C-alpha cells in the first residue's frame, strides 16, 4: 500500500544566512535544512521543533508555514515525501547536545553559498524552501489543525 512520508523542515535565517546541516547519506556529504519525519503521536509543528534541535542543537520556534512540498526521488520513485516547511526563530543553543547520527555539522550559509554547493543538496526542496521564504511566503500556523492535541494533553 502506498503512503507518503510526512516530513518537516525548518527555514531559519540570521543575518542573511540560513541554518543548514551537513550530513552523510550513503557516504556522500549532503546539505539540507534541519528536517525529518513526523513521529507517531507528534504534531507537525512539534516535529519541526524536535528535528531542529536534534540536528543542530538549536532551540527553535516555528512562526509560519512557508509551504507544503511533494517530491519523489528519481532513484526511488516509489517514495513520496510531503514536506511541511516552517519559518522559525532560534531561541537558544545547547553546546552540550549531541547531534543525530549522520549529522556532521550545523552550518550557516548564504543563498549564494548554498547555490554554489548545489551538487551537495539532498533534494531540490532545499533551495525551493529558501526561495519561497525569501519571496515572503508565510502562512499562519493555524492552517495546521491538530485533532490529536487534546488526546496528547490528556495522556498521563
TrEMBL record:
- Superkingdom to which the source organism belongs: Bacteria
Q: Does the keyword Hydrolase apply?
A: yes
Q: Which Enzyme Commission number(s) are on file for it? A: 3.6.1.-
Magnesium in keyword set: yes
Q: Where is the Nudix hydrolase domain?
A: 1-131
The UniProt keywords, alphabetically, are:
Hydrolase, Magnesium
UniProt-recorded Gene Ontology molecular function terms: nucleoside diphosphate phosphatase activity; ribonucleoside triphosphate phosphatase activity; thiamine diphosphate phosphatase activity
What InterPro entries does the record point to? Answer: NUDIX_hydrolase-like_dom_sf, NUDIX_hydrolase_dom, NudJ
TM spans, by residue? none
Essential cofactor(s): Mg(2+)
State the Gene3D superfamilies in the record: Nucleoside Triphosphate Pyrophosphohydrolase
Q: What class of enzyme is it?
A: hydrolase
Q: Which SUPFAM superfamilies match?
A: Nudix (SSF55811)
Family, per the entry? Belongs to the Nudix hydrolase family. NudJ subfamily.
Q: How does it assemble?
A: Monomer.
Identify this protein by name.
Phosphatase NudJ
Q: Which organism is it from?
A: Andreprevotia lacus DSM 23236
